[in-house]
C-alpha cells in the first residue's frame, strides 16, 4: 500500500508524462487500466497505454505538457480540470480537458479524459498559425504552487 493520496498519484503520473518519462508514469498505472478519450475507443491494458505514450520518449519533436487548473478527490476518484498541451514539431496545441481517474491500491485503474472537439479544432488552428508565426504561440499558464 502506498502513503500517497490519489491526487498525489494522478499528479505524479501527469508530471512524469510531461517530462516524457513514460516508464515512470506507467509505474502509477494498473496492469488492467481502462483509458478513454471520451468519444474515442477505450484502450485496455498497461501495454497498450504504454504504446500510445512511448512516442514522446522516442521522438523529441512530440510531447505533452499540462497545467492543473483544479483538482479534487472523493475517495479513490480524482477529478482534474487541466489545460493540456500537445506538441508535434513546431505545432503546439493547448486545450481544456477534464479528467476522471480512479485509483485503487496505489495504481490508476481508470483514466477518462473529456474534451471539446471545437476547442481542439481552435487549438489546432492556433497551433498551425503559431508554427508559421511563432509570436502567436501562448505559453501555458504558470504553475500554481499551493501555499
UniProtKB/TrEMBL annotation:
InterPro entries: LEH, NTF2-like_dom_sf. It comes from the Bacteria. This is Nuclear transport factor 2 family protein. Residues 6-126 form the Limonene-1,2-epoxide hydrolase domain.
Amino acid at each position: 500500500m502506498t502513503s500517497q493520496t490519489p491526487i498525489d498519484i494522478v499528479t505524479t503520473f501527469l508530471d512524469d508524462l510531461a517530462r516524457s518519462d513514460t516508464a515512470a508514469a506507467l509505474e502509477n498505472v494498473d496492469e488492467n487500466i481502462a483509458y478513454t478519450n471520451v468519444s474515442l475507443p477505450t484502450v485496455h491494458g498497461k501495454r497498450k497505454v504504454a504504446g500510445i505514450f512511448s512516442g514522446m520518449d522516442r521522438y523529441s519533436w512530440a510531447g505533452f505538457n499540462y497545467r492543473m487548473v483544479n483538482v479534487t478527490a472523493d475517495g479513490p476518484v480524482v477529478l482534474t480540470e487541466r489545460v493540456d498541451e500537445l506538441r508535434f514539431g513546431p505545432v503546439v496545441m493547448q486545450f481544456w480537458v477534464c479528467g476522471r481517474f480512479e485509483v485503487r491500491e496505489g495504481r490508476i485503474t481508470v483514466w477518462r479524459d473529456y474534451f471539446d472537439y471545437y476547442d481542439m479544432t481552435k487549438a489546432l488552428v492556433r497551433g498551425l498559425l503559431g508554427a508559421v508565426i511563432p509570436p502567436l504561440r501562448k505559453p501555458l499558464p504558470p504553475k500554481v504552487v499551493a501555499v
